[in-house]
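Re: folding output
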Amino acid sequence: MSLRTGIIFMGACKALSARRTGIEGEVARRLAARRRATAVRRRADEGSAYALPPYARRPRQRLSLGVLLVLLTGLSATGFAAFISVSAMFGAPAHAGPVAAGDPPGAAPVSAERSAPGDTGTDSLTGNPLYASGAMTQVTCPAPELDADDPASMEDFLHELTTCLDTAWRKQFAGTGLEFDAPSRIYWYTAGQSPCGDFPTAGTAAFYCQANEGLYLGIEDIVENSAESKHPEAYTFLLSHEYAHHVQGEAGLLDRFHGVRAAEDDGSAKDRLTRRSELQANCLGGLFLGAVAESYPIGSEEHANILADAERRGDFDPSERTHGSPASGRMWTAHGMDRGDPAACNTWEAREELVD
């Protein structure tokens, strides 16, 4: 070995040693951060600033020796992505993008005569078996490490949380008589096609396509459409909302919603129904956030960030309100986190002022 080769070899060894030391230090740092995070306790109950509908005021169930059920107390202004849910069986997706008036391009609403399996008319909206499934069971789901600027980190984050969502909702559906299959995951980096249309479209960061039970999220688009937020809980809220549309689909709620909506001739009536569906997704998403609050953890700061995100993703323009006002979006998200029971997410029977 020549002197020059030896010097190069020694330099490479030192570089590898330094890299190894850096990696070990990073692992130690992340483990320490995880231990600190898991030591944080959930926030105390906060008083609700809104009047609860009668069906949501019933006493909460409490943990007993024989029952492993718990109730856990408790994302953009125009620049942020909003949610849209016109996800007919063979129609357009539920978006996390700008709200469009009426049916989105390519929408093919389900016929009013078409019923979901086990559909009993409007009862499938107001008396759905999901509402009788009881309190959400607590799920252990520590927040994955996230570097929002690193696409690989974001993809890992989304997959890990989606697995938690699969577990939580599979448990919730057990015993309801309703079948539950986890959605397919399509987390994109580049443009593509779905049965609900091409993606991405202007401002669309995420959507649920009922035609193939697909959960679609843009790895980089959700960061851009969330004002490049550094808060992991913001992306958890976005994901839990889109996943909630899948929950609605599995429960037969989406089919019936689209059937009833298709039968309406009045645009304002269609928008009112869409608001109820979208705000229900906020509430169902809140249920999951409450179910993982202990292990995630969701403390007072994370809780505040989630509600601020939900508020910013509301409809600020009253003339184009299909997802609910900022106040309603915040309220139903907080309601789901606080009450922890699907029965509290029955937006179809809520008073008009609560779903504006």
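--- second protein (sequence, then structure) ---
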Amino acid sequence: MQTLISKESTFSEGINLLLELRGNLFEQISSIIKTFPPVAFYQLPFGDGESNHNATLAWSLWHLFRIEDIVCHTLILHDSQIFEEDWQEKIKSPLITTGNELYGEVMVEFSKKLNVKALYDYCKAVMDSTNELLKSLRFSDLKRKFSCADKERLIAGKCVSDSDSASWLIDFWCGKNVKGLIQMPFSRHWIMHVEAMRRIKNKLCQEAKKGVDQIACCGLSCNHCFLTAWCGSCRTIYNTCSFATCSPDGVCPNTACCKEKGLDGCYECDELYDCKKGFYSLGKDTNAIRAMALFIQKHGKKELLKVLETLHKKKDFQKIQEVLGEEIEDGLRILEEIR
């Protein structure tokens, strides 16, 4: 991407690739916002420190998009930041700075105060605004540098703390040309912090699953699922399984049905074999999971886990469908044979 942007003949192609990258990264942010509970956004699972993952999810969002807003509007465009459109009041933030000066419990307390939904809306508005800037750039704009007056304007705006952990930002930004700012913060900064957010959310999921029953309501074994690294299972508040993420309010219909009926899982239901709810509505794509639930119905969870352990020792696979197939009876037969 950077190579494409560096050449006039491929500049437009590079910008389009950058916009695509930013769109893909923002989809990951949207998924976190949609599927994680409010408490997740002020947790500090990796503790205090100076790495990008030594942060809360809320702070990561705030920091990433405050910097982008400041650089895009105050530094490059010389106009008003998106933040000035009453976003401080909407987000309930006590700060206007980038947040570089916050660590540990101070960061946690700051994160607790934020309206995460409003923060997400602000992030989206900033991204859209920067995207418009990127689309408007010409190749000749890349060499534009910044002056002492630009630096003084940033200082006067008081959007960067004068603490040692933050004040260096102004010199850093003003020491670059527009091309350098496209690299940092408009692309690399996103990659760094979205990756850190992925680590944070995965850590929260793993911590939540400790000591929790790893058989999902649908009959799937979370410990044997290829998504186990980043899903907290439907038995915790960090349920980010693939079906939950595309369901209303991030709740899988199978889980909702079990809770409504007071069942531990679908395997306790008499309607299991012909059920068309949630995960089971996909038919042949998820009949292997239904087969596992039916196996539990007959032999129990512990017996299924033993069978799955044996299966994983014998075969290299990610999805259980690869082994149990698309038909319920075939799946049951294979499970019984291994038992």
